[in-house]
Design brief:
The protein is of the alpha/beta class. It contains 10 helices and 7 strands. 40% of the residues lie in helices and 10% in strands. Strands 1-2-3-7-6 form a 5-stranded parallel beta sheet, sandwiched between helices. Strands 4-5 form a two-stranded antiparallel sheet. Strand 6, helix 7 and strand 7 form a beta-alpha-beta unit. The mean pLDDT is 95.
Length: 324
């Protein structure tokens, strides 16, 4: 039993993971209705990383994410109605219907904007960390979430080098799900752990099970504390697996993009099931409390979907607004 993590924090982690999972499942159900026109990149199976990292962040801390950003934004506190309205392309969405699923934004909660460019969020997080230092707000931390495919980009190496040189308060969080679209990591990179690349840039590199929310929480806590105390960045590699295909609600097993046996094995390592069992077995969560949390989440999602569907369409006269 974990004695160094409070029961309230454990329930918060569970609730965040369940909310992320429930949203992604709800999107999977409504997507075939064809009312959501934007592509959706789902993070089902990867919920523990967003929950475990963001649990340590303050409202003023910033996160920078990818095309697969729903979980990160939820964990950072983004309003569900605003997010779902953006999925539906409505003018009351977080990006006024201009960004869709891949371009979520909520500056009030430390989400300046997500980007679909592979590796594009990494230098943005470094820039935000540099800004914190120049403003003498060194305790404000920024986080870059990215996949294993982003390590193939030059910006990954350039960003780690600069962040280490300037001892910037930034976390580099790699969600290693072993695939860049449909290309396995083994076909793109030598058999070298991503976390081990940190040594070349003079920063700690940690590899851990990204499906174990308690491991994620602890390692992220160490990295955030290091950043806030002025000791610079950390590279965190969390191994995990996405259940759905690269884009859309269906798995890509039937098309041969990933082996069915591999997919099945990872689904048995479900981070939410693992954590639920732990909480129930240690009497940290009762079935009645779990039912209450599920009911609250279902209600929130019902309201968010209804809000998204009922929202106003952007006006043609606004087409060139905010275009520079």
């Amino acid at each position: 039993m974990q004695k160094d993590i409070s029961p309230d924090t454990l329930i918060k982690l569970y609730t965040t993971m369940l909310l992320i999972r429930s949203l992604e499942q709800r999107v999977s159900r409504v997507y075939p209705e064809q009312e959501i026109k934007t592509p959706v990149h789902l993070c089902t199976g990867q919920e523990a990383i967003a929950a475990g990292v963001c649990a340590h962040l303050k409202k003023e801390d910033t996160i920078f994410s990818t095309h697969r950003s729903h979980g990160h934004c939820i964990a950072k506190g983004m309003d569900l109605n605003s997010m779902v309205a953006e999925f539906y392309g409505k003018s009351n969405g977080c990006s006024q219907g201009r960004g869709g699923s891949m371009h979520l934004v909520d500056p009030e909660h430390g989400i300046p904007g997500t980007t679909a460019i592979v590796g594009g969020c990494i230098p943005l997080a470094v820039g935000a960390a540099l800004s914190s230092v120049l403003r003498k707000e060194r305790e404000t931390v920024s986080v870059a979430f990215f996949g294993d495919g982003a390590m193939d980009e030059g910006t990954f190496h350039e960003s780690l080098n600069f962040a280490s040189l300037k001892k910037l308060p930034v976390l580099f969080v790699c969600e290693n799900n072993f695939y860049a679209t449909n290309s396995p990591q083994s076909a793109r990179q030598p058999n070298v752990k991503i976390a081990s690349r940190a040594a070349g840039y003079g920063m700690p590199g940690v590899e851990a099970d990204g499906n174990d929310v308690l491991a994620v929480y602890r390692h992220a806590g160490d990295a955030v504390a290091r950043a806030r105390s002025g000791h610079g960045p950390t590279l965190l590699e969390f191994t995990t697996y996405r259940w759905n295909g690269h884009v859309g609600p269906t798995p890509d097993i039937a098309t041969g993009c990933r082996p069915a046996a591999e997919h099945e094995a990872w689904m048995k390592k479900c981070p939410l099931d693992k954590f639920t069992t732990y909480l129930l077995n240690h009497s940290l969560l009762s079935q009645a409390e779990r039912d209450r949390i599920i009911g609250d989440i279902d209600k929130k999602l019902d309201e968010a979907i209804a809000f998204g569907k009922a929202g106003p369409e952007p006006l043609v006269s606004e087409l060139y607004d905010h275009v520079w």
